[in-house]
Amino acid sequence: TWPVNTHDAELWWIYLIERFDGRLYVGIATDVRRRFAQHCAGRGAKFLRGGAPLRLIGALRVGDHTVAVRAERRVKRWRCARKRLFFRTFGTSIGTLHDQLGSTVRPSLS
């Protein structure tokens, strides 16, 4: 039920993870389920190591790698409240990921 890209290796997602202490991490991946599992296993971003339990807040399909990197850079500069609002508004929550896998959402990140 989490976003996974099995058809197009060029399709990237931006995702938001919350640590146990409420701090947020923004990342990009083509397979969010696999990447989240790596984070939970202590592999990947050092920021998330020791931050368990981790919670995947949401994910958003953004397009190719270039678009994903640009989106990640921009979103990482935002304050926590804006990140949460963005993913609540445009992102796919864990409960609805399965329903939205067929549609691409490309909101403006300005």
Please describe what this structure looks like.
The protein has helices at 32-40, 65-76, 80-89, 97-100, and strands at 12-18, 24-29, 55-63. With 110 residues, it is an alpha+beta fold. It has a three-stranded antiparallel β-sheet, sandwiched between helices. A hairpin with a 5-residue loop joins strand 1 (12-18) and strand 2 (24-29). Residues 94-110 have low confidence and may be disordered.
Low-confidence parts = 94-110
Q: What's the count of strands? A: 3
Reading side by side through the largest sheet, how are the strands ordered?
A: 2-1-3
Helix and strand content put the structural class at alpha+beta
Strand fraction: 15-25%
Shape: globular
**Helical content (DSSP H or I, runs of 4+):** 25-40%
User: Please, how many helices?
Assistant: 4
**Main sheet attributes: strand count, strand direction, barrel closure:** 3 strands, antiparallel
Element-by-element helix/strand order: EEHEHHH
Please, what is the average pLDDT? 80
Summarize the structure.
The protein is of the alpha+beta class and 110 residues long. The chain has four helices and three strands, in the order ββαβααα.
Protein topology:
Layout: E1 12-18, E2 24-29, H1 32-40, E3 55-63, H2 65-76, H3 80-89, H4 97-100
Antiparallel strand pairs: 1-2, 1-3
List keywords for this structure.
disordered C terminus; single chain; alpha+beta; 3-stranded antiparallel β-sheet
